Amino acid sequence: MSQPALLRLDKVSKRYGSVQANRQIDLSVRAGSIHAVLGENGAGKSTLMKLIYGVEQPDAGRICWKGQEVHLARPSDAQSLGIGMVFQHFSLFETLSVVQNVSLMIPGRPVELARKIQDLGDQFGLSVDPHAMVHRLSVGERQRVEIIRCLLLNPKLLILDEPTSVLPPQSARRLFETLRKLQAEGMAILFISHKLDEIRELCDTASVLRGGEVTGRVDPREHDARSLAQLMIGREMPNVAHAAPRPPGQERLRLNGLSHPRASRFGTTLKGIDLKLHSGEIIGIAGISGNGQQELAALVSGETRAQDPGMIEIMGKKAGHLGPMARRRLGFSFVPEERLGRGAVPEMSLADNSLLTAHGRNMLSRGFIRRKVERAFTRDCIEAFDVRTPGPDAEAGAMSGGNLQKFILGREIMLQPDVMLVSQPTWGVDIGAATAIRRRLLDMRDQGCAILVISEEMDELFEMCSKLHVLNHGTLSAALEAAQTTPQEIGRYMIGAQS
Amino acid sequence: MKLRLIRRDAASRLAMFASPVLALALTCLASLVLFAALGKPAGAALHALLLKPFLSWYSFSEVLLKMAPLLLIAQGLAIGFRANVFNIGAEGQFIVGALCASAMPVYFPQGDLPLMLPTMIAAGALGGTVYALIAAALRTRFGASEILVTLMMALIAVQILNYLLLGPWKDPRGFNFPQTVMFPDNALLPILFDGTRTNISLIFSLLASVFAYLIMQHHFRGYQLRTAGLAPRAALYAGFSAPRMVWLGLGIGGLAAGIAGASEVAGPLGQLQRSVTSGYGYAAIIVAYVGGLNPLGIIASSFLISVIYIGGDSATVSAGLPVAAVEVFQGLLLFFYLLTFTLIRYRVELDRKVPA
Ligand SMILES: Nc1ncnc2c1ncn2[C@@H]1O[C@H](COP(=O)(O)OP(=O)(O)OP(=O)(O)O)[C@@H](O)[C@H]1O
Ligand SMILES: [Mg+2]
After folding, report:
1. Which residues of B283-312 are buried (b: 16+ CB within 10 A; e: fewer)?
2. How far apart are the C-alpha atoms of A206 and A190, rounded to whole Å?
């Protein structure tokens, strides 16, 4: 190989306070290669990508672009070289429309940009309404906007930090086709994912990070998912055999013809949703996001009030008119799909984030915050759920994505709810931790908790749930026994081919 | 080559103490040059601006007198600001507070009303609160921006003041000046230190600061307000009622401004007159932000700003500085203070070159 690598990192290190996020990393990416970076939550993947994209600067080491050493002081430096990046946490302005967001980075008249967005969307199966307001979009749709915005800049190297963790399987397929086309045109792609099957299918090289260091460089096509996972976590993968569910007990959550008009042109109207959830049972809601998942979750959690109190019953009580706090007092808890800014306040410490929903657990005395109790709860949560963080005083915004998810899930489980709604439980969580989270949920079920899971991951739903519903265009299918249905059948419901 | 700011991992302790000193030094340097260029005695000017407020007990007591309303209003406003409730019209609530308090002595000019002072303070508090809550009602009911509403209501308050002073409340024996009767003695706040004008409203303000500190840093209600400001969707998720935050944020700001207004007429003014609109309500916004919206920081910033006000007054008199030069000096000090304050949180780095 005579031509130098497109991008080469030479002993690059980065430290945040007491955390050595990257240590002496060597990496080289060729043009036309799809290069995977894998590792556990907190291994330093996102940090490394931020160094390459100029968001952060390395403490030591060199970054070379086409053989020349470069110093990237800010993302625009990286962009001018031809590096594009889609972040794990989105960077769109919620109060602007899609075109307006795009036009902040890309010159051009709005009308033209809107056309280009539509064209690219059609071409790559990333369709999104250019004039939709971003705050109305689901997480999956926001990601599409981010990817389109990057592609509009014609990058030579595209960095995708967990692009598929929020994409429904169908869109992921189309994204892969897109990526292969781009690869054929000579683009290099850095691809981060916790889904090892994807990496094996798509990537030609994989660098494995553990504790901030490169611990392996392999051709993923020559390994199976199990051995990749082992490389990643440095030990044998635990086996997940779980007891069969006992027959369900008393009814804990009931939706009675739950209907709700959409809040805006881009929302989804929910139409007559019926559902019964019992103690000791996990029910899954499958479907492509944007079909009413957000609206349904907000109605069940109380963030949106139902039009009629009787449309939602929690623990046998009418709850449609109650707010989130009152529903928690009935024994309900909720893990939302967005972690930063909804499930947690980024600028606050983990301890203060415990207070957000766990204040009822003896953390207040006459309204004053009992710091000791707050910290003890947080420390227990960090320990019990294997959250990798310096401690209860760490800011939530500085945590790696997967670790924050573990913390939020842990906090909600520690509330010992009788009914739980979990939205996308394992988005962006590494497979070791994802397995642990699913096991936790199954344990909760065995202890009698009633759990409703909204997820786009078919495997996950089939692994945990006894019954499945499919949400499509705001309508919920009848319950399907998980043991008597197939992913194919669910898939047909998802695209509305069966009802 | 360019400069850029990098956020520090932790605020540097040394910088925290060094920054006000550095700001002062830079201001002195810059204004020495400025005053010399104006042909004014630079040394004397600086002396008047910075040292005079501390040189006599009386001028220092004037600093404390100014500080009382600034501190009280800023504490109230900061609570709202941290919840993203932007009450810009504290001046209006201050005026309404002053009006409501003045009603007692105006209708009982002989002081023949039991509990005169407490009634006045309570009336001022109520007036300021209700006046601010109008904006809360419009915001929660119709989504009207509280920034615009409070600002416009401040203008309305000035007109109500003018109407009362030119019409029904004008002192019949006041040579047609737009002012009310002088208040009777039992309508005046007790003086804190003999021979000065500093009254017990300073104590109110300090108590309010302690209260604000406890609420914002240690009470669940303050936590809810902060959450609403930092991450509205998280507040919604947790179930903290957004309208309640608006009512609270505006109500507390109005309450503080109303009490400050009542204390102003029952304190240094001793009557209701037009000069009650001296801009405390607007200055308090600066005080709140210079203090970093932190209850303790606001104590320091209200003191600092009061010193530059009093120093400025004395410099125009004793060093013959034009008012504009004093304002430039005050602006410089604020500018350098904010600059050095930024350096506590960020460090400056030189950009290394980037190949094209
Ligand atoms: N801004 C920051 N301040 C302090 N610590 C940070 C910051 N950003 C990241 N870290 C720490 O650096 C480590 C690596 O984080 P990074 O986000 O790179 O992990 P990751 O491999 O992307 O994990 P995930 O799969 O969960 O996204 C973590 O321990 C994290 O807490
Ligand atoms: Mg990451």
Report:
1. bbbebbbbbbbbbebbbebbbbbbbbbbbb
2. 10
- Chain B CB within 8 Å of residue A105 CB: no
- What's the mean pLDDT when you consider all of chain A? 88
Protein residue closest via CA to atom 6 of ligand 1: A398
- In this structure, how many other beta carbons lie within 10 angstroms of the beta carbon of residue A361? 16
Contact yes or no for A369 and B223 at CB 8 A:
yes
CA distance B226 to B207: 21
Q: Where are the domains of chain A?
A: 7-233, 251-494
HSE-up of residue A355 (Cα within 13 Å, Cβ side): 31
Contact A98, A121 (CB under 8 A): no
Q: Provide the pLDDT for residue A42.
A: 87
d(CA A195, CA A36): 11
pLDDT in tens, B261-291: 999 999 999 999 999 988 899 989 988 988 8
Does the ipTM exceed 0.90? no
Q: pLDDT by residue (tens digit) across B84-96? A: 999 999 999 999 9
Q: Do A369 and B218 touch (CB under 8 A)?
A: yes
Residue B260 lies inside a defined structural domain of this protein? yes
Q: Do A326 and B230 touch (CB under 8 A)?
A: no
Integer angstrom CA distances of residue B176 from A143, B161, B165, B167, B282: 70, 16, 10, 10, 29
A7-233: which CATH topology? Rossmann fold (3.40.50)
Residue in B214, B226, B352 closest to A71 by CB: B352
Q: Model pTM?
A: 0.82
> CATH assignment of A251-494?
3.40.50.300
Strand-strand pairing, A467-472 and A480-481:
antiparallel
- pLDDT confidence of residue B13: 63
Three-state DSSP class for A301? helix
Weakest mean pLDDT among A317-326, A488-497, B121-130: A488-497
Q: What is the pLDDT of residue A299?
A: 96
Tokens of A21: 């996020």
Residue of chain B whose Cα is closest to the Cα of A65: B355
Is B353 at the interface with chain A, CB within 8 A? yes
**What tokens appear for A37 in the block?**
């970076």
- C-alpha of residue A400 to centroid of ligand 1, in Å: 4
Give CA–CA dist A158/A142, Å, rounded: 18
Provide the percentage of residues in chain B whose pLDDT is more than 70: 93
Domains in chain B, number: 1
Q: Do A7-233 and A251-494 come out as alike in CATH topology? A: yes
